[in-house]
């Protein structure tokens, strides 16, 4: 007997991979503004002008937001495989960031029942704490093996940007992709517990 699979559920992995590929493609585009080579008298926070700030990690926000809302729609091999692929494309140490992201998503996946009762602000606080642990673990492991790293102020700026963009990614996931936390006892179209 063949097991039926709801078609709507099967579309989320290709959708995630398409969004991830788009984000990675945009990260690889050479978007250097040559006017930034001139000194900027209006340098802001951390001595960086708004043009010098690194882009937030949209893919990490998307991954964590989806795992919090519907951990069953984004399997661990998909996350590990794509982040390993991205490590190689972005010339990061292969597997380090992929492992950190996989551990973070599995931490959230193991607590999915508890996270259902969290409001957005508790989820956001958990995201900030998890991001801080991921950021520090990555920097510490790279320092242990004496790998070259981005300057601390640029890494911290990306960390802040990622934290600030998370609510927008959650709103996009909720309103556009219809990903929401299932209610306690909610079942899918086949009657299986979510």
UniProtKB/TrEMBL annotation:
Species assigned in the record: Roseinatronobacter alkalisoli
Protein name listed in UniProt: Rod shape-determining protein MreD
Keywords of the record: Membrane, Transmembrane, Transmembrane helix
Lineage start: Bacteria, Pseudomonadati, Pseudomonadota, Alphaproteobacteria, Rhodobacterales
Transmembrane intervals: 12-29, 120-147, 159-177
